[in-house]
Write a structure and sequence with these properties.
By secondary structure, the chain is α+β, with helices and mostly antiparallel strands. It has helices spanning 2-10, 39-52, 84-98, 100-104, 122-137, 147-153, 180-193, 237-243, 306-319, 368-380, 396-399; strands spanning 29-35, 57-60, 76-77, 111-112, 115-119, 142-145, 168-172, 176-177, 197-199, 204-210, 213-219, 222-231, 251-260, 270-273, 278-282, 288-292, 328-338, 345-348, 354-358. The strands form three sheets. Strands 1, 2, 9, 10, 11, 12, 18 and 19 form an eight-stranded mixed sheet that branches. Strands 6-7-5-14-15-16-13-17 form an eight-stranded mixed sheet. It has eleven helices and 19 strands. The model has no long low-confidence stretch (mean pLDDT 93). It has one domain: FAD/NAD(P)-binding domain, CATH 3.50.50.60. Strand 1 (29-35), helix 2 (39-52) and strand 2 (57-60) form a beta-alpha-beta unit.
Length: 413
């Protein structure tokens, strides 16, 4: 190994393999056109090529690959949801995440560190007990902790906050983080190696729909024919649905977060409080990441605000008082496509060959691998919806069969 490294270092012509191929022209048509070059779209393209041998695929991204909400989330991975349907789905995603670096031959910096969600009221304690039982029933590692156990796990946490004292906690052992852009790049690299075409700076303007099928996609670089199309955008889901003439109950809200300057390590688990609408974690670089719930008004904009900053910081300081001395380094925002039941919309649409991967709210990143795998299976089968995502179909809203995950996020909605 050392001699191979020396040979590489001193070679005048080292064997450098680029991760991604150079840009190319669009072909006249593709078997599959995936709209959205974030984690979900790239993962779908990867599994289509790897698992199903479908390589005549184009991924269209209006910006740069992984530059949308994939680049703007807080990189949390977990499966401690409320409903059986949600828990089963996200548990499969966690399983895929664990081996994803080896799968993609690309280091996604996966770090299993656990997530602690604080309960401040008796009602929350009862809800957490039920949530722990649902998680354990389907194979998740989630349990209740009392105050002494929380103090031992997070010695720096203030258990007697001025807002409400901490009574107990929901400890999700499987909670983890990963480098969000590395996940997108790893899937992009794997898909490109197998013949998938990646087209950044390619915005979808409209569709050509004939006999209830999408026959072509109009872009800023020309019109391309397609056998089928997959919508995998975030923040603009309802805009794209309108272009296709599809009605869906999605509203978009800003979601903000911020980080402090790096400090010495003091926090391994991710700590959150739905009563304070705040979660805190420390990154591998020492930065303290602070986030909360979505803004209370719809908006197609990724801007940050002083109002939310002040509110989040006040609650973070209730949890960790010494953070009052930390200096804020940067603040940013993403956009969340919220559905009435806070669950995604996956599967078939009213258009025969147009498939939906939308309405993820704040849950999109953690679902990346399993979403790509199941959407690829859906496309490759010609529209046969995999059992795992059948409950998330658009038609559930007309049948009144919602999957209520309201409050399943660490900071509530």
């Amino acid at each position: 190994m050392p001699f191979a490294l020396l040979k590489y270092a001193f070679s005048s012509d080292p064997p450098i393999e680029p991760d991604l191929p150079p840009p190319t022209d669009l072909k006249p048509g593709y078997d599959v056109v995936i709209i959205g070059g974030g984690g979900h779209g790239l993962a779908t393209a990867y599994y289509l090529a790897k698992t199903h041998g479908v390589t005549n695929v184009a991924v269209l991204e209006k910006g740069y690959l992984g530059g949308g909400n994939t680049a703007r989330n807080t990189a949390v991975i977990r499966s401690n949801y409320l409903t059986p349907e949600g828990v089963k789905f996200y548990i499969e995603s966690v399983k895929l995440f664990r081996d994803l670096s080896n799968e993609l031959d690309f280091n996604i910096m996966y770090s299993e560190r656990g997530q602690l969600t604080l309960a401040h009221t008796d009602a929350t304690v009862r809800a957490f007990r039920q949530r722990a039982e649902v998680n354990r029933h389907f194979g998740g590692r989630t349990e209740m902790l009392d105050r002494p156990q929380i103090r031992a796990l997070v010695p720096t946490l203030n258990l007697d906050t001025g807002h409400l004292p901490v009574l107990a906690g929901l400890w999700h052992i499987d909670g983890a983080t990963a480098r969000h852009d590395a996940v997108a790049w790893g899937y992009a690299k794997g898909a490109a190696r197998r013949g998938v075409e990646l087209h950044p700076l390619t915005e979808v303007k409209d569709f050509v729909i004939e006999h209830n099928r999408v026959t072509a996609v109009k872009t800023n670089r020309g019109v391309i024919k397609c056998g089928c199309a997959v919508q995998a955008v975030a923040g603009s889901s309802s805009i794209l649905l309108n272009k296709a003439g599809i009605r869906a109950p999605i509203h978009t809200y800003p979601l903000q977060a911020m980080v402090t300057q790096p400090v010495k390590p003091f926090l391994t688990p991710m700590v959150s409080s739905s009563a304070l609408h705040c979660y805190v974690q420390q990154t591998g670089r020492g930065e303290v990441l602070i986030g909360g719930g979505s803004d209370p008004y719809p908006l197609y904009h990724t801007r940050s605000t002083l109002e939310l900053k002040e509110g989040l910081l006040a609650h973070a300081i209730e949890m960790f008082p010494f953070l009052a001395n930390a200096k804020l380094m940067r603040q940013w925002a993403g956009s969340t496509d919220m559905t009435p039941d806070y669950s995604p919309i996956m599967g078939r649409s009213p258009i025969d060959n147009y498939y939906l991967d939308a309405g993820w709210g704040t849950y999109g990143f953690k679902a990346t691998p399993i979403c790509g795998k199941t959407m690829a299976e859906l496309v490759a089968s010609g529209g046969q919806t995999p059992e795992l995502i059948q409950p998330f179909g658009l038609a559930r809203f007309s049948r009144f069969q919602q999957i209520n995950e309201m409050g399943a996020t660490a900071a509530s909605h």
